[in-house]
Amino acid sequence: MxxxxxxxxxxxxxxxxxxxxxxxxxxxxxxxxxxxGSGKSLTASAVLGLLPYGVTATGTVELEGRDLLGASERExxxxxxxxMAMVFQEPMTALNPSMRIGNQVAEVMRVHxxxxxxxxxxxxxxxxxDQVRLPDPERIARAYPHQLSGGQRQRVVLAIxxxxxxxxxxxxxxxxxxxxxxxxxxxxxxxxxxxxxxLLFITHDLAVVAQVCQRVLVMLDGRIVEEGxxxxxxxxxxxxxxxxxxxxxxxxxRR
Length: 255
Ligand SMILES: Nc1ncnc2c1ncn2[C@@H]1O[C@H](COP(=O)(O)OP(=O)(O)OP(=O)(O)O)[C@@H](O)[C@H]1O
Known about the structure:
By secondary structure, the chain is of the alpha/beta class.
């Protein structure tokens, strides 16, 4: 499904990510962990074709065999929101503050023409709001983003991400801004929502990886230094850095 091979990212001749390779198959949930600045978000941005201005990527990124690094912006925007979708930390930046929630969810289906008409897109939007367990979807659909809580807004973002049934979902710290009980609910929804799809889940929280992912990649200074099944890596880490990460987390205490 997603294949990243020899991905390097640089800016002004300065390397930020070095020769990163990994795959995420359909039905697989893969975590990407590592300290702040290790290159996790840039790696995800390269996959999505959303690298910041002046930052460039080389290597191979393929989604269902389709080359993404060489794709035009037009091709990429046809894929984003349809074949691959993303959920970032701050839901407010993903939502349009002046558009009603229902219209925003319907919009992503209209843009990609995945529903035959406006009415069916609106109906599908209500179903999606219900699917992410928002109470009273009709009322939420009429609301504006600022009228919802942070957790409710992230549910809306997830509904938008899942609207077109994408094969790949990329989450970058989706629950970091939420309190723990809401965090657990959103993680459950993500797990349920990605069934049969590929998930790349970026976080610095090892407990979240243990809860959501089957496989984990550990990144340090722009390189993947260790990878494997979550259980294996967390129980018997091989790289010194992974050992340090585990020692610093509260996972140890839960074993
Ligand atoms: N637009 C940019 N221009 C130059 N350097 C950048 C740019 N964006 C990120 N970097 C640098 O690239 C490195 C990797 O950043 P990245 O955001 O991928 O880290 P991260 O692992 O996602 O960290 P965090 O967990 O804090 O989000 C960092 O050293 C960062 O300073």
